[in-house]
Amino acid sequence: MYALTSLTKYRSHSCASSFRWCELVVAALLAALTQVSFAQDSVRSGPLYDELARRDSVLFEAAFITCDAETFRAIFTEDTEFYHDRTGASYGNDVRTLKSCPRDNGVTRTLVPGSLEVYTLQGYGAIQIGQHTFARAGEPGSEVAQFVHLWKREGDTWKLARVLSFDHRPSPQQK
User: How many CB atoms lie within 10 A of CB 158?
Assistant: First the structure.
């Protein structure tokens, strides 16, 4: 009965009779919306985003441009895992070993602008997601794919622990 009485009192409490109450509700809603907006913006900006965007560049420069096997190997954790929708799963040294140089075959990798997002993973590191395109010189078209990188914080260093590479398909402009 008390709950019903309280609900009735609450319903009869209008903005006209309590301007201050309405101000508080509006302020709370605006504060909540600001926090949601800030959270969405923080996945695409800030120190963590910048650091992992830089690590993404180092990874793909070592793999596709300089073909630097030592730098490539140092990016990964010892127990790294790589899951690819076309080639399956690989683990540890199979992932950390640069087996070929895509540059020698004319293959390039380009991060899709605006697709990179970074999410903190408390007590471990961060999740980085995005899309990238792959193209081969002299061939028409390109391929787009999505990726998820699980970065582990080891002291002052970020190491790539898990990689998911999936949804490889012709780029939209190629369909």
Answer: 21
CA distance 133 to 175: 14
3-state secondary structure of 67: coil
Residue 116 CA to residue 96 CA, distance in Å, equals 23
Contacts of 12 (CB under 8 A, 6+ apart): none
Measure CA of the first residue to CA of the last residue in the chain; give whole Å.
Answer: 65
Burial class (CB in 10 A: 0-12, 13-18, 19+), 37: exposed
The one-letter amino acid at 65:
I
**Per-residue pLDDT tens digits of the chain, which is 175 residues long:** 444 344 344 444 444 445 554 454 444 444 444 444 344 468 999 999 999 999 999 999 999 999 999 999 999 999 999 999 999 999 999 999 999 999 998 999 999 999 999 999 999 999 999 999 999 998 888 999 999 999 999 999 999 999 999 999 998 865 4
DSSP secondary structure of 119-175: EEETTTEEEEEEEEEEEETTSS-EEEEEEEEEEEEETTEEEEEEEEEEEEEE-GGG-
With beta carbons less than 8 A apart as the criterion, state whether 72 and 98 touch. Answer: yes
